[in-house]
Structure formats: structure tokens, C-alpha cells
Amino acid sequence: MNRYTKRTFALEMLMIAVGIVFAFPVYVLVNLAVRPPSDTSSPISPTTSPTFANFTGAWREAGLGGALINSVLVTVVSVAIVLAVSALAAYPLARSTARWSRTTFLVIMLGLILPFQLASLPLYQTVRDLGLLGSVWSLVLFYSGLQVPFTTFLYVGFLRALPRDFEEAASIDGASPFTMFRYVVLPMLKPITVTALVLNAVAVWNDFFTPLLYLSGSDQQTVPVAVAGFVGQFVSDWNLIFAALLISIIPVLAVYLALQRSIINGFAGGLKG
Amino acid sequence: MLPALALFTFVVLVPSGRGVYYAFTDWDGLDPDFAFVGLRNFTDMLGDEDALQAIWHTVLIAVAITIIQNGIGLLLALGVNSLIKTRNVLRVLLFAPAVVTPIVTAYLWRNLLGPDGAVNAVLGPWGRDWLGDPDLALWMIVVVVVWQFAGYSMVIFLAGLQSIPREIYEAAAIDGTGPVRRFWSIVRPLLAPAITINLMLSIIGGIKLFDQVYALTGGGPGHATDTISTLIYKDAFTLGEFGYSIALAVVLTIIVAIASGAQYTVLNRNEKAAS
């Protein structure tokens, strides 16, 4: 079973065919994004005279530059806050067996079930009263709380599976709880932090519903709402729309291709905890 | 621990609690004067054809996505876990859609599935108005979600497959066990944790589905593809019926809770039985 046989070759051909089917939408995306609107030939035949005009047009009209900056800002700040507070919370939750610790853990885990739709409407009112409607900081606040249960769940699961020997040794050596967390526990948390970072960053970057509620009608946009607004505005100008879609996908795919191993392992591994 | 608890309480716990309370009122989202109306929002729902349809669509989409996405995901995982030379390239390619923004891929597919879109260009005479036909539109949403997330299921199954020691598999092969039997008796039980995670992710994701519906059909044609989530959005922000909208969110929460509870119980038992 470790040899490359005829059957392996047949499987190889089949899988390549499947890969082509999966990649087909991306081919059409690029093909139409570089096509001038005057070219009305079939969407699957290769574009004969490619142009970059759609990209400059889409970039100018959709406000994608500002949206990209906002998306990066919201993602970086929210994910940094979520990882910091969740890791700090997970440590006592995983190590203490006191009743308050178990109760708190269960309450936070309740957040894994509560759909965000339930909280997002009442929170809409709070955000409005705080004067944060139309500001990207409302999103940072929202994600910083929303992603806590899942991230804490990842950290607690990981910590519970981690042997306590190092911490016990440090404690015998007289390390304070802070020193212990900073120099003993934190370095061991690296693998799960990569996972939590990847999963949170993708979730925050791609979220559409929340910014649709909190940013609608304002000039502060994240990439998903900027794209949706642009599609609404240029309803059937698909060449322009495709250029905008492609611009919004390129940064994501660039990061994905650069860090594919960590990202795929992040998605596959976070769930072992 | 306090900062996490404070953020979680402020952003999730308190608003969710208030949400449950508003579900029993006629609040319009703005007016500070609103009345407690008891169960009226829920009894209204029972007479609201659109709401009942949306609940049915939500369950149908979630179940269809769960079965198809995991079926394809598992086959893809078995395919790229073989000795084929392109396995690494294919892994990266097949997983790629899962990281791309769902609203963006949904707009891409809206064009692909349109009357003059690429799908009809490939199918020629078999082309259809995929998103304009009320009988087809719901299934197109399922197709788009499966295209995007089959690779996600694949990587989780793949991690499960790779954790199975090769010796067990080889021993069975030497004993003359056929490939189907090997899969069913050896691989399947050892994949139990991956199956649990995949089913959980896809069913909960399917129940909450919003972006793809919003971008592909907007709930149409008519109300043929409305889900609970799209109805929550429309009722709250175009009709100003916050109370009713949040009552729908409560129904959504109950469905998610039932699905998670049922899955946890059933799969936990299976996982124990398997190990």
C-alpha cells in the first residue's frame, strides 16, 4: 500500500479534476475582473484584451483603501484583546477546582451556544447610547466580548491537558503567581495561541452581520460592508464588482498562502483541545 | 480573569438577557415607551406563514449542509491522505475558500449562477435560472456553502486520519481485510472526535446562516429562501419590529441549544462506545 500504483494514478486524475471544479469560480472571477465592459463574450472564454481599468475604478469608487485599513485595525486590536483576556482568564479556570471557578467556566461556556443575533440587537441600542454607532470601535468592543467564550474554551482545554510539573517546580522555587504565568505558563501556550489567533482573526475579518448593523450609513466601513455597499450601488456592472471582490480577496489569500501551514493546522488543531 | 468576565458580561450576557426580555414586549427599537405583551410575539409567529417557512428553511439548510459538506469533506480527506503526488497542492487549494470572506464568495456565486453566468455557460442547454427559481434557490445556497466549507471539514477529517497509527491499518491489510471493511471497522471509530467536531461546526453554522442568503437571494424569490437570521434582520431594521425580531432570535437560540444538546449526547455516547 506504499507504492504508487495504477489505482493511485486514477485517484490522482480524479482529485485533480475535483480541484479544477473547486478552482473554477476563481478562474471566472479573474477572467471577468480584467475584462472591459464592452466585451460581452461568454464568461468562460478567456478574455482577449485584458485591462486594469476595472481595478482602478473599483478601488476609487468602493473606498476599499479606507475599508482595508479599518479591517486591519479592528482585527488586530480585537484579536489582541481577546487573546490577552482569555489566556489570563483560562489559567485560574483551568487550575482552580474551587466551586466559583467551575461556575464561572460554565457561565462563560454558555456563550458558545448563545447566537450573536440574540445579543446584537439589544447591544445595538447600547452602542447607540454610547455614541459609538458608525464607529469601528463599536466592533472592537463587540468582538472583544463575543470571542471570549470560544477562546477561553480553547485555552482551558489546552491547559487542562498540560502537565503541572513545571508550575510546581517554579512554585517550590518561590515564583509569584505573576512570574509563574509570565515565564512558565505563557511560553507553553504558544501552540494554542497560534490556533486561537488564526481562528479569531478569520472570524473577525470575515464578519458581515455586525458591521452591517453598527456601521451602516456611516463613512467608516470594513471590507465586507464596503463590498456589499459597492455591489448594491453598481448592481449589474459585474466587471467592476468582480474587480472589487478580487481586491478584497487578494490580501486574505496572500496571508493564507504565506502562512498556509500554520493556518491549516490552526483550523484543524484548535479542536483537539 | 476579571477583564474577560467583564467584557463577556457586557457584550454577551447582559444583552442576551435583555434580548430575552424584549421578546415579550412590543418595543420598536427607538421608543422608550413599550409594553409587556406576554407571549404575543410567539403566538403571532405561529400564525405567520413567513416565519414558519423561515424556521423550516433554517432547519432544512442546516441538515443539508451538514450531510453534504461532511460527506464531501470526508471523501476529499481520504483522497488527499493517499499517495497522490498533488496531495499537498490540493490540500492548500481545497481549503482556500474557507478563509475567504463569505459575503464576497456569495456575491461571486450570485453572478456565476445568474442567467448569463458561467455555470449556465458550461451547462449550455441544461442551464436554469438557479437563483430565480423558488424550488432551486434554497439548494443553491447549500451548494455555495458546501463549496466554501467542504475544505474545512476536509482538514479536520485529515487531522483525524493522520492521527491513526499506520501499523493498525497495515496489520488489518495483511490480515486480508478489504478497504471498505477497513474503513468502517478501523478508521470510522478512530475518526469519532473529528466527526463530532465537524457535525457540530456545520450544523450550528448552518442554523445561524445569514451572509450567503443575504448576498445570493436576499431571502427571495418572494420568501423562498428566508431563514430565521434574514427575517430577524428584516423585521428589526426594515419593519422596526424589534420585539418580534428578538422573539425570532430566541427561537433561533432554542434551536441551536437543542441541536448542540442532542449532538453532544448522541456523539458523546458513540465516542465512548468507540474507544
UniProtKB/TrEMBL annotation, chain A:
Highest taxon listed in the record's lineage: Bacteria
Protein's cellular compartments: Cell membrane
PROSITE patterns referenced in this protein's UniProt entry, alphabetically: ABC_TM1 (PS50928)
One GO BP annotation of this record: transmembrane transport
Keywords: Cell membrane, Membrane, Transmembrane, Transmembrane helix, Transport
Transmembrane regions listed in the UniProt entry: 9-30, 67-91, 103-124, 136-162, 183-205, 240-259
Residue ranges occupied by any ABC transmembrane type-1 domain in the UniProt entry: 68-259
Family membership: Belongs to the binding-protein-dependent transport system permease family.
The protein's name: Raffinose/stachyose/melibiose transport system permease protein
Species lineage: Bacteria, Bacillati, Actinomycetota, Actinomycetes, Micromonosporales
UniProtKB/TrEMBL annotation, chain B:
Record carries keyword Coiled coil: no
Membrane is among the record's keywords: yes
Membrane topology: Multi-pass membrane protein
Gene Ontology BP annotations: transmembrane transport
Subcellular location: Cell membrane
Keywords from the named record: Cell membrane, Membrane, Transmembrane, Transmembrane helix, Transport
UniProt-listed Pfam families: BPD_transp_1
Domain ABC transmembrane type-1: 55-263
InterPro entries listed in its UniProt record: ABC_transporter_permease, MetI-like, MetI-like_sf
Single GO cellular component term: plasma membrane
Recorded superkingdom: Bacteria
Transmembrane segments: 54-77, 89-109, 136-159, 190-210, 242-267
Family: Belongs to the binding-protein-dependent transport system permease family.
Protein name, per record: Raffinose/stachyose/melibiose transport system permease protein
